[in-house]
Amino acid sequence: MGTGRSGPRVLVIRLALLALLLAAWEGFAGGLGPTWRLVDPIIVGRPSAILADLREYAASGLLGRDLRTTLIETFLGLGLGIAGGVAVGLLFGYWRTMAEVLEPLMVALNSLPRITVAPIVILWFGLGMTSKVMLSLFTVFFVMFFNTFLGIRTVDGELIKAVRVMGGTARDVTRMVVIPSVTSWIFAALRTSVSFALSGAVVGEFIGSTEGLGYRMLIAAGTLETDRVFAIMILLMVIGSGLVELTRRVEGYLLRWRPSLTAMG
Amino acid sequence: MRIAVDRLGVRFQRGVEALRDVTFEVGSGELVALVGPSGCGKSTALNAIASLIPPGEAEVTGTILIDGTDIRLGKARQAALGYVFQRDTLFPWRTVLQNVEAGLEIRRLPKGERRAKANSLIELVGLSGFGHYYPHQISGGMRQRTSLIRTLAYDPQVILMDEPFGALDANTRLILQAELIRIWAQHRTTILFVTHDLTEAITLGERVIVLSKRPGRISAVHDVPIPHPRDPFELHGRREFADLHGAIWRSVSQDFRGAGR
Lengths: 265, 261
Fold this sequence. Notes:
A: 265 residues; mainly alpha; B: four-stranded antiparallel sheet; 10 strands; 38% helix
């Protein structure tokens, strides 16, 4: 948070630190001649080699394909997970009996480490994209579900009273109070969901697949192509933080009425 | 519009009796203050009049008529009733302007009319220029002003106010009291104003109804013989104010001392 608001001085220090770190990595991995070499580049890779590998990866056309696959899985999983989680969360919020009956089940499913469902999901949905979408969906679903449910439960009763006393109907209450307050909870969960969706897709690719960034990374690790592993890690980092930053901005705009997210004035 | 409360009793499910046998009237266009020690059931009385007490929560006995119609018949009261809460209940996701428009939106008023009306009210209480601020960006006094005009916006015939200035600092409180008097003198809406502050009750009310500690019963009703519009800033120094305050205080201090337990 707040990374975009730091002054130029901080930015300069950050860039200098990053350059230093990369130079040290390059040097110790032997990139600046044998004198500095401390570790085997097969184990730790080397920035220059990683960059070269990234170029090659892109040129071969594989990168485009893998990227496409992983992103489609991520976005489908994210979209479906959000839709499903919000829908079921609303259902639970409005239908108390169902919530009371099924809450332990949801809590149990949620406490299951997400990755552990991967093998069964692959078994059910095969090696194609579907299984990754499902896994991604599964991880996102619970975050959205619990936030939506909690959002409905914590709607401010005083605000409902205020609408009632102004002559508002149940529909007015929904429109003027429930939807805006639940929306804020949903948006709060969105940032987590975005990174969850990406990890869901990549982990799914680890377990069993034929393409995608996760698949390519696992293959590279198996054949000791350390540079490729790092190249993909860096790609994932960029994609992940890009998506999170995007959500943060959208959220900051939509929730500008919230004190913590807006600048005063 | 006239409020007639007849032998109102409220007993909560957990056995707490909040009000017993409370009977009073607020005449059309009258500004009446209901004062009592904390926990005496003042707010409960307002909630009962606004039918904001959920049926499962308490047993309500007696009758409450608004302009001769029993409030339990619902519907009719809604168009006519305004309620200003203790804590400002502004929608945090709406700007000042959008908050003031809320009641008009519920009444399906066209957008242009809504905006015009809200803006004129915003001007009335000196909030011009703050229409596009969100509640968290303005002061407590401004928020409570916004609450007040949000209620005024849809022209309720009766306004119930539950310690609306209780959370404000002394000076802001006086300013808002003066504003309320000014607006009331213009519109002559029926107002029932609940407060635990005797000074505030005498400042505002044409009559002051005093409730005893729990279970709340009416222990006294005093006319305030100071003509309206009054000036809260000047009033407190006046002789008749001090005399009345002293007289009422003597009659209730025993109750106020024992309250809050």
